[in-house]
C-alpha cells in the first residue's frame, strides 16, 4: 500500500512545513483532537493552522506504526516521540473529499495505552 495522505500530513507537521500540511486540508475541514487534558474541536483550515502554529517548534515526531485506507477513509496508528522518549500513542482517521483533501479529521492521544507494540 502506498503512503496515506494522513501519514504525509504528519510528516509535514513534524518537519515544520505547516503550509504544506495545511494545503492537504479542505478549507472547511472539521476536526476533533482528543488529548488527556480535553478535546479541541474546530472548523476550517485557518483554525487548524492557528492550533498547529500555537504548538511551537519542537523535536516532536509522529511515528506511524500502521496505516490503512478504505475508499475515502484513512486510519493511522502510531507513537509520538519527543527526542528519544515516547510520550504516548495516537489513533487518527480522516475522510477525504472528492478532491483528495482532508475534509474531516479526528485524532485521540493517550499517554498510557498501547494498542499495537512497536515493530
From TrEMBL:
<feature type="domain" description="SnoaL-like">
    <location>
        <begin position="7"/>
        <end position="104"/>
    </location>
</feature>
<protein>
    <submittedName>
        <fullName>Nuclear transport factor 2 family protein</fullName>
    </submittedName>
</protein>
<dbReference type="InterPro" id="IPR037401">
    <property type="entry name" value="SnoaL-like"/>
</dbReference>
<dbReference type="Pfam" id="PF12680">
    <property type="entry name" value="SnoaL_2"/>
</dbReference>
<dbReference type="InterPro" id="IPR032710">
    <property type="entry name" value="NTF2-like_dom_sf"/>
</dbReference>
Amino acid at each position: 500500500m502506498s503512503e496515506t495522505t494522513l501519514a504525509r500530513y504528519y510528516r509535514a507537521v513534524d518537519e515544520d512545513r505547516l503550509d504544506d500540511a495545511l494545503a492537504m486540508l479542505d478549507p472547511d475541514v472539521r476536526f476533533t483532537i482528543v488529548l488527556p487534558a480535553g478535546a479541541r474541536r474546530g472548523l476550517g483550515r485557518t483554525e487548524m493552522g492557528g492550533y498547529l502554529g500555537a504548538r511551537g517548534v519542537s523535536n516532536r515526531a509522529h511515528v506511524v506504526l500502521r496505516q490503512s485506507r478504505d475508499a475515502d477513509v484513512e486510519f493511522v496508528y502510531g507513537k509520538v516521540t519527543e527526542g528519544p522518549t515516547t510520550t504516548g500513542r495516537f489513533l487518527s482517521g480522516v475522510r477525504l473529499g472528492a478532491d483528495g483533501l482532508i475534509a474531516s479529521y479526528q485524532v485521540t492521544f493517550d499517554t498510557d495505552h498501547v494498542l499495537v507494540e512497536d515493530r
